[in-house]
Amino acid sequence: MYVENLDQLIANIENLHSCRSTDNPEELVFFKKLIGKGICFVACKVDGEIVFSPSRFAGYFNNNYEVHSQVDIEKNGGGTNNAIRKLLGTELPDFYLEDLYLEYCAKYDINPDKRQRRYWNIDIATKNDVEIFQEIKDALNINVKSETQQERIIQERLGQGEFRRNLIRYWKGCAITGISKLEFLRASHIKPWRDCDNFERLDPFNGLLLTPNYDVLFDKGYITFDNEGVIRISNSISKEERMIFGINENVSIEIDEKHEKYMQYHREIVFQG
Fold first, then answer.
1. Which residue of 72, 194, 253, 266 is 20 to 30 Å from 130, comparing CA positions?
2. CA-to-CA distance for 80 and 58, rounded, in angstroms?
3. Is 192 exposed, middle or buried (0-12, 13-18, 19+ CB in 10 A)?
4. Residue 227 carries which DSSP code?
5. Residue 134's pLDDT is what?
6. CA-based angle 23:39:203, to the nearest 5?
7. In 3D, which of 153, 259, 256, 154 has the Cα closest to residue 203?
8. Distance, CA of 115 to CA of 99 (rounded, Å)
9. pLDDT grade, residue 23 (50/70/90)?
10. What span, in angstroms and rounded, lies between the C-alpha atoms of 149 and 228?
11. In what order do the strands lie in the sheet with 49-54?
12. Do residues 3 and 60 make contact, with C-beta atoms less than 8 angstroms apart?
């Protein structure tokens, strides 16, 4: 039986993390193993600390160390994932939460498996604008004095992250190839960022999730799509280049009517014909 509401889910999370301070060494081993080997985690705060609970523990009704240890519970978390999705939506990769997860593992001497993890977030605020802006300045080694410049850089950084998350939810993988390994995929605006208003920059219908080869070609206007989703290829690309890039002339994608105005802009302004 799976959790049916948020209170049940949080109660399980609190039960799991009570194992951190137990006098029973077996409970501590149990806790470390679950945290280190999890794939899908619920992130939330317990007693002011951000904690991470794998779905295969958090998703069962009235779960705790004794119950989980005595019952032969499935190990892949499929049923618990579905139960939590009903409450919190789809779990997604999150670079910020991944960093916090690794810090959490280090704090409790846990060696996490090397794998791509996904997260649900229960009321954990993302980094504030000051922190994000400082990271950007450090990474780019820039000196920005203007508040207007600071705001622009911050909003671009924040907006691009939200835009990518929305595209992942919509497309689930590359719009052309179907590849779903997220680290291989790029969030590509149909109508370029520089030409968009604030709404268009975050509108998921103004974007495609693409593998790097198709992202470059689409961004530079060497390919586009008609309103039926059928690919159009620029005459400036030779047959040899098409083979190198792996461009299939029979490619088509699923176009919603909400994509059409953006795709028309791409065909008329960006596409090289």
1. 194
2. 8
3. middle
4. T
5. 57
6. 130
7. 259
8. 13
9. confident
10. 40
11. 49-54, 40-46, 118-121
12. yes
Quote the pTM value.
0.49
Q: Which long-range contacts (CB under 8 A, 24 or more apart) does 107-115 make?
A: 108/20, 108/31, 108/32, 108/35, 109/32, 110/32, 110/35, 110/36, 111/36, 112/35, 112/36, 112/37, 113/36, 113/37, 115/39
Identify the DSSP state of 185: -
Cβ neighbours of 243 (radius 10 Å) = 9
Beta bridge partners of 42: 53, 120
Question: Given pLDDT bands bounded at 50, 70 and 90, which one contains residue 135?
Answer: low
Burial class (CB in 10 A: 0-12, 13-18, 19+), 201: buried
- Please state, in angstroms and rounded to a whole number, the distance separating the CA atoms of residues 219 and 56: 41
Residue type at 223 in one-letter notation: I
Q: What is the pLDDT of residue 143?
A: 60
Instruction: Report phi then psi at 48, rounded to 5.
Output: 85, -5
Task: Say which residue, 108 or 244, is predicted with more confidence.
Answer: 108
- Residue 180 has what DSSP assignment? -
**Cα-atom radius of gyration of the chain, to the nearest Å?**
23
Question: Which tokens go with 52?
Answer: 């991470």
Task: Report whether 23 contacts 100 (CB < 8 A).
Answer: no
CB 168 within 8 A of CB 209: yes
Tell me how far apart the alpha carbons of residues 78 and 68 are, in angstroms, rounded to a whole number.
Answer: 16
Tokens of 145: 């004095």
- pLDDT score of 20: 86
